[in-house]
Amino acid sequence: MSELIIPADLLPADARFGSGPSRIRREVLESLAGPDSVMGTSHREPPVKHLVSSIRSGLAELYHLPAGYEVALGNGGATLFWAMAAACLVRHRSANGVYGEFSRKFARTLQAAPYLADPAIFEATPGSLALPTAVRGVGTYAWAQNETSTGVIAPVARPVDIDEDSLVLIDATSAAGGVNADMAEVDAYYFSPQKNFASDGGLWVAFLSPAALARSADLTSSARWVPDILNLSMAVDNSQADQTVNTPALATLTMLEAQVRWLLDRGGMNWAAHRTATSSGILYRWAEDHPLAAPFVRDPGLRSPVVVTIDLDRSIDAEELCRIARANGIVDIDPYRKLGRNQIRVGTFSAVDPADVEALTACLDWLLERIRRR
């Protein structure tokens, strides 16, 4: 099947559909080598500080952050933020929604912390959803807004009947910048910028409520030892000075700032959410109509607008389909490896043009027809 060559007039203009790292707009990549680039300069000097300031103010505007909320950032990505949250935001015990690989990883991080009680786990099988409800003795509630491994979207709303001083932590890595949310419902909304924010990995960003700031200040000043790299209060102090604790990746900051401004210039989160819903809707309708495909997430209300997972008929080898697609320049539609399903997974993030998604479905039609005949 390696000789299958998709007609050029069917191919997307940009055929990158990865679920992370995701498509970065080409003009932004080119700007890194431009005359005004901060690449190769000091992160403690005004040009980079202005860049960080623009990111923080732009994100606050994009999400209409309530008064008293802070935009903080630092090195390490969302994976590091899991450890940071365990050290600085969970006092005794958490309750976690677990419905895929990434929501499970955070729960495991909390379970491994020797100074915390095991979390209360609310678990669902991949493709469905489980959210934590009020538990006696729990002061932190956590789940992922978008489970990147399965393509399940979750609501962002404070659970009913939880203690007044409880915190709500939302992993928004593959949702932020492409799915809207009310920040007043959240105490820590955190993400890495390599999805809808069309940047690179290695950075975490968090929107923090006054309650989260107070919890962190209390825990980091108490008997609990917290290394500097995991000290959220130290990261907040540095962020307020428009810098990071240690040297950041300047390219990542540059690309993030460009995408924030790009989204604001086009209408902000309402525009972004409409664009991702349009792109994902094209794929879901295609999968529902095609005899060899079906949306993996059965409940339409749980289907992600930014990560689309599609099961393929047993007569189609998804691995072979993805290999042929890659040979034709259509990259990163492979399924999440640990899910182990015969499927494709398509990132429909903010930087993805819906016209490219339409073209992708035409290419899939062309390939499936020929692969099945063989």
UniProtKB/TrEMBL annotation:
EC assignment: 2.6.1.52
Annotated catalysed reactions: O-phospho-L-serine + 2-oxoglutarate = 3-phosphooxypyruvate + L-glutamate; 4-(phosphooxy)-L-threonine + 2-oxoglutarate = (R)-3-hydroxy-2-oxo-4-phosphooxybutanoate + L-glutamate
Entry-linked SUPFAM superfamilies: PLP-dependent transferases
Domain of life where this protein originates: Bacteria
A molecular function GO annotation: O-phospho-L-serine:2-oxoglutarate aminotransferase activity
Reported cofactor(s): pyridoxal 5'-phosphate
Enzyme class: transferase
Domain Aminotransferase class V per the UniProt entry, residue ranges: 143-330
Pathway connected to this protein: Amino-acid biosynthesis; L-serine biosynthesis; L-serine from 3-phospho-D-glycerate: step 2/3
Keywords: Amino-acid biosynthesis, Aminotransferase, Cytoplasm, Pyridoxal phosphate, Pyridoxine biosynthesis, Serine biosynthesis, Transferase
InterPro entries in alphabetical order: Aminotrans_V_dom, Pser_aminoTfrase, Pser_aminoTfrase_mycobac, PyrdxlP-dep_Trfase, PyrdxlP-dep_Trfase_major, PyrdxlP-dep_Trfase_small
GO biological process, one term: L-serine biosynthetic process
Family of this protein: Belongs to the class-V pyridoxal-phosphate-dependent aminotransferase family. SerC subfamily.
Function noted in UniProt: Catalyzes the reversible conversion of 3-phosphohydroxypyruvate to phosphoserine and of 3-hydroxy-2-oxo-4-phosphonooxybutanoate to phosphohydroxythreonine.
PANTHER family: ALANINE--GLYOXYLATE AMINOTRANSFERASE (PTHR21152:SF40), AMINOTRANSFERASE CLASS V (PTHR21152)
NCBIfam families: serC_3
The protein's name: phosphoserine transaminase
Gene: serC
